[in-house]
Amino acid sequence: MKTRILIATLLLLASTGSIPAFAKGPNGPATPPAAVSRTVSVAPLSAEDAADLIWMREEEKVARDVYLTLGKTWNKPVFKRIAASEQRHFDALGAKLAQYGLADPALPTVGQFNNPELQAMYTQLVATGKTSYVAALTVGATIEDVDIADLLAAIEATENSALDRTYQNLLEGSKNHMRAFVELLRDLDADYAPQYIDPILFDAILGD
Questions:
Q1: Single pTM value for the model
Q2: Do the beta carbons of residue 150 and residue 93 sit within 8 Å?
Q3: 198-205, long-range: CB within 8 Å, 24+ apart, which pairs?
Q4: Taking the domains of the chain in order of start, what are their residue ranges?
C-alpha cells in the first residue's frame, strides 16, 4: 500500500518566506471522531477508508475557508469561484460521512478546525496569502497541490468503489483549480513549482 502523504514544508515564493510543516495527509495522527451510533444501510468502511474520509472532509474545509478569507482580502473572482467549488467538494464528503455513519469533524465557523494541525495550516496559509496577491495565488496552487497528492493516495488505498468515484470527481476539480491559480500566476510573470505531485502530472494538468 502506498505510503501516505506527509505534508512537509510548504514552499512559497522567496519573497513571501516559507510556511512551516504543520500537517499530515490521510491517515495522519489526527484522532478520528467516533462513529455515530446509528444504523446505516451500507457496509462499514475499513479503518483506513474511514480515516481518509474524515481527513479529506476537514482538508476540504481548509481550502474553502482559506479561499473565502483571501477572497475578502483581495476581492478577486478566482477565490470566490473556487471557494464555491470547494463547498461542493466539502458537501460531497459530508454526504459520504453521513452515508457511512461517521461523525463529522468539521466545525461550522469559517477558520475554525477540530484538528490542531489543520488549524495551524489554515492560519499560516492565510497569513502568507495576505502579504501579496501573488502570494495568495501561490497559496491556492499549494493547497491544490496537496489536495491532489492526498486524493491520489486515497484513491490508490481504497477498494471501495463509491469512495473511489467521489475522490476521482474531487481530483478533477482540484486539477482545474490548480490550473486556474497557476495560469493567473503566469499572467503576472510568476510561476509555481509542484511540491507534492509528480512534475510530469503537473505539466499534464497545465498542458505544458
A1: 0.82
A2: no
A3: 201/148, 202/145, 202/178, 205/148, 205/175, 205/178, 205/179
A4: 48-206
Geometric angle at alpha carbon 16, from 106 and 177, rounded to 5°? 50
Quote the cell numbers at residue 137. 495565488
Please give the backbone phi and psi of residue 4, each rounded to the nearest 5 degrees, phi first.
-70, 155
**Measuring CA to CA, which residue among 113, 55, 63 is closest to residue 83?**
63
- Tens-binned pLDDT, residue by residue, of the chain (208 aa): 333 333 333 323 333 444 434 334 544 434 444 444 344 456 789 999 999 999 999 999 999 999 999 999 999 999 999 999 999 999 999 999 999 999 999 999 999 999 999 999 999 999 999 999 999 999 999 999 999 999 999 999 999 999 999 999 999 999 999 999 999 999 999 999 999 999 999 999 999 8
List the one residue out of 64, 52, 53, 177 whose CA is nearest residue 111. 64
Q: Which CATH superfamily is domain 48-206 in?
A: Ferritin, core subunit, four-helix bundle (1.20.1260.10)
